[in-house]
Amino acid sequence: MSDTRYANLLIDTADRLAEARNGNESWEAIQAVAKRIGATAVNAGGVITLPNSAGLRTGTHPAWMRSSMEDTWLEEYQNAELYRHDPVLRSALRGLPPPSYYDVRAAHSLERTEPQLAPLHDGLLRHDYRFVLAHMWYEKNLGKCIVLGCSTDPRDLFGPGTERAFSTISAMLAMRLQPPDDGVGEASAFGIDWLMPNPQEFDVLCYLARGLNEAEVAERLEISLTEVRRRVRNVAHKMGAETPDQTLALALSRGLLPL
């Protein structure tokens, strides 16, 4: 891939992403760029490292996901719980770099040691997602993963410079990736089960996000401290969090609260 062609690709990608004014427009731009460089579909998601009750960072939690893959495949992927064995998702949730290049047909050899991969591989091939490229981008405790599904080997697209092009473009896409503007999207898909806070719980979260403590929130909302803590416990349960800090971190990473 010539330096000029590579530079033009980067400039065009930057221009297309810069036109996006919100999260959903960014998602549309990401899909357009992915299509231009040979992908037939895009998966994207956020994973967050959360503090435990002692304030230590322990493990990662899914924040949200989006996908432009075919609905029939997403339904199969969800219903059969194939996400439990997806090597890309599994790596991301462990805080590890996902495989940057995954040849689904060649990966059939892995089924001898991991037979649970067979339904995943079969489904990907049936829907013509024969090759998968993945990139992870970290911003503090939030990791953003971009996964491109391709029907033909993407290494043939741009010659020797293809790997460099995909790495750079994927990083650019991940930097602009945002959770769905409505805070939901496909957020409850692929094993990520959480409920939206109700208006009363949302009020408490908003004040906590501004830096107020629970007593100050109680005073501001003119409710008891016990009621504030009850609302925090309720929304923590809904969102799959263990502590108030985790609850707030998940709410922010999922785009539920204004920054």
From TrEMBL:
InterPro entries from the UniProt entry: Sig_transdc_resp-reg_C-effctor, TF_LuxR_autoind-bd_dom, TF_LuxR_autoind-bd_dom_sf, Tscrpt_reg_LuxR_C, WH-like_DNA-bd_sf
Key words of the record: DNA-binding, Transcription, Transcription regulation
Record-level Gene Ontology MF annotations: DNA binding
Listed GO biological process terms: regulation of DNA-templated transcription
Residue ranges annotated for the HTH luxR-type domain, each copy included: 194-251
Listed name of the protein: Autoinducer binding domain-containing protein
Natural source organism: Allosediminivita pacifica
